[in-house]
């Protein structure tokens, strides 16, 4: 079972046993959880006629005793407080409370105390506490995602909150899968270690009864990684459909907001890009940009044919046929114009920012050696006035990550040039990135130049040549997944939590990246899963990154650390 | 898909707290079930008003009494409408199943003339179309203006019923057009050829033995007449079916305004919530604006009235001065 169906089943079970007209009440987090897998028309089929947010429902006083309230909330203390107040003055006929995670006894106590009218019919824990954007890719949508880069002592309460949310999310995934995992983490990352240990404590000590599913099969694996182990992937320009849309336009909960671009017809201002609902997108989300263009052209041609056949209506039969096919025709019309709009907008941006040129150098930096040539290419692009500021910054970062130790003088030259060229550049940001994610901090062999085997592999690839210069980069995650499936993930680099060790090759692997995933990584997970290797990988993260988001997090962490150090 | 039911623990806590809260009234407190809500509510508010803890007494009392009234009273009137439409749809669905059977029966070759079947089909089709039409009219009445929660509920109920209705009408149309096609096939197919041949054969035979067998000829003529009547009948049926198809198409057009396109942004839950929030905000703004303009209008009117009064008084004053 995949994540999307799991969450769907949870919601189905929530709604199907309660007959009659219902109102569904969500909080700001569960809205995303429900929205990515369930649609308004699905809800209407289940007789849910009103969906409201927790804060807006508590403002209104209108009594609606003919409705039954179904609450689906995260068990946070704010939600409990709001709920307590609402239960004291019940507005709805019945109250069915569903929580997305483990409730504390005190929280149940508070609710029981406020339920004087005995309006509550049931209190349940349904562990759908993650946003399942794709079948094997989930995110937790944590807003202040920069926290993982801060040292522990700086903001302990917020950091604790951040860790708690992650542990909640991870444990919910395993509860939904009905499994208890073996846990491993990345050695060099403090936050990964902390999360792995807290999850282990929850699953094996605090709630060991809940996680005991009495299954004889081999335990799945949970691997907790740190984004800083692979800072290159979120910095690259992307050329496969889903990743590219996210990089250039931004996807939030499978929605793309086009309002900022302007001159878009009203019904296309915000579009849905969901692999579950859109067959064309499902077929093409991992294709590269050139193929997308071809496929869209094919789709448009098909559509035109249908449109033409709809135009000559002469007999009554034609008319009847047209009316029969009209809903599908309309759906197709919307779909075609959506994808055409997206691709047009993206090619405009590619043209404007000279991304073909920039991306070629980026890929060279990420994949191939040759420091001298790389320096020259980066310098040229820095001098090119058509290249945007953010691309310059990324180029320098990629260069710095790659040739951190090789020639400090040239690196300094690039820093100075960047500072001179880009007005918005905040000094020290690249250095901060190096400090956070430099070669000393990384566990994985990001550039494949640490051991002989990898060097040999790289050389072999160089000799073979690549078919597409723009998509030659393989995220580090791919290597990690390969080592897992071959059982070669080193115990020294990725230690176990507690004394639960892997006996055999796991069948389910959940990889959680603290700091966020990228769609490029999700793509390689999906492609690997489709080869039927016997292992199913699930990827999750605190957020879904594009370069803008990654740089924003970096800047925020940089700012906070600087202000705290000057303050002290 | 693990779940954990905490209801029992919750109930235990709740019962424990209740017994702690009102130990002296233990004997009187009625045993409660979920169905006897309203009664229980008013009873508790009468019996121990002092046990309320979370709000000041006065507001709590009004809230409780209004709540009790609603609990005892009926749900809003539109619920009846929606239930009527729902039952209509249910009814139409069962009729639809009957219609399917009737179609199958009518298309089967039989010894009778099939009039009975035809009549049944006609009646059923008419009934279903009528049900759909009626439901659609009712549905239009469900809509409500404004941006309150209740109107949202009504809009959504309307949408869901419209989706049901649309799928029903699509189904009916598909059934009808399939039937129509089969009917035409039967007419043009083997039957039709047979019929033509009969006529041709009849003619040639007529020429051959012109006056030999008048009785036989009459028989044949009668058969031809009967066949003609049969075709006319079929023609009429086809016409009827076509008409009802058109009618349904019209209804479908009306409904499609209400039905949500699946897979689009309108079908997203979060989008709808945002939209409602923003439209509520806009409504509030409009209301404030309206209030302002109204106030302004009132003031302006007042001022004009006063000025006019001034002039009238002045006129009267002048008159008074001049006359006396």
Main features:
heterodimer, A: 568 residues, alpha/beta, Rossmann fold, 4 domains, six-stranded mixed beta sheet, 21 helices, 14 strands, 13% strand, B: 324 residues, mainly alpha, 79% helix
> Low-confidence spans of chain B: pLDDT under 50, at least 5 residues?
24-73, 191-209
Which residues of chain A form runs of ≥5 with pLDDT under 50? Answer: none
The averaged pLDDT of chain A comes out at 86
Oligomerization state of this entry? Answer: heterodimer
Per the CATH scheme, the topology name of the largest domain in chain A is Rossmann fold
What is the SS-derived class of chain A? alpha/beta
Protein name (chain B): t-SNARE coiled-coil homology domain-containing protein
Keywords (chain B): Coiled coil, Golgi apparatus, Membrane, Plant defense, Protein transport, Transmembrane, Transmembrane helix, Transport
InterPro entries (chain B): SNARE (IPR010989), Syntaxin (IPR045242), Syntaxin/epimorphin_CS (IPR006012), Syntaxin_N (IPR006011), T_SNARE_dom (IPR000727)
Organism (chain B): Carnegiea gigantea
